[in-house]
Design goal:
This protein has helices at residues 27-39, 80-91, 119-132, and strands spanning 18-21, 50-58, 63-67, 97-106, 137-141, 146-150. It has 169 residues and is of the alpha+beta class. It has a single domain (18-156), classed as Cytidine Deaminase, domain 2. The chain has a 6-stranded mixed sheet. The protein is globular, with a radius of gyration of 17 Å. The two termini are 34 Å apart. Bound molecules: zinc ion.
Length: 169
């Protein structure tokens, strides 16, 4: 095919991730990131030793924490992002999620860059945004003071699958 195609699919997305030093962010975002760091201590990660803490800021001001929960039967565990998003769905049903802070660390103190959510968590986050009809601002932090900011899941999952593909016309 030599790089040629039969027709042009003109779908483009801007995927912009901005970088900030922690201390330059708004106070409430710094506090949300701090809540995510606090949630690291609740992670159960004896297998990967990769700890993830999450904090969701809801529209009503409540903060929902999450952390990764592993299992000896590996697929039975769950990521921090989904533990938080599902907990919010149970504890505060229908309340929009405004922002999500995700912090990663390793038990041996290894320096880590901010880490992006996995595909499954992005899929769940996509559905949260579709349900509440507004994006969730995402903040990512590793072990340093650098924070990545993105305006919503579309930054990480620009061509996501949602219910519009399977809904009857
Ligand atoms: Zn995940």
């Amino acid at each position: 095919m030599d790089g040629q195609s039969d027709f042009s699919v003109n779908i483009q997305r801007n995927c912009v991730v901005r970088g900030f030093h922690l201390e330059t962010l708004d106070r409430y975002i710094q506090e949300l990131i701090h809540e995510a760091e606090q949630a690291l201590s609740t992670a159960y990660a004896p297998y990967s030793r990769f700890f993830v803490g999450v904090a969701l800021l809801l529209e009503n001001g409540k903060v929902i924490p999450g952390s990764n929960q592993e299992n000896a039967a590996y697929p039975s565990g769950l990521c921090a992002e989904r533990t938080a998003l599902f907990a919010a769905g149970v504890q505060e049903p229908g309340v929009p999620v405004m922002a999500m802070a995700i912090v990663v660390a390793r038990s041996d103190g290894t320096e880590l860059s901010p880490a992006f959510p996995c595909g499954s968590c992005l899929q769940v986050l996509l559905e949260v945004e579709r349900r509440q009809k507004s994006p969730v601002r995402v903040y990512l932090k590793g072990t340093g003071q650098q924070v990545y900011e993105a305006d919503g899941v579309s930054v990480f999952l620009p061509f996501g699958f949602d219910s519009s593909f399977i809904t009857e016309p």
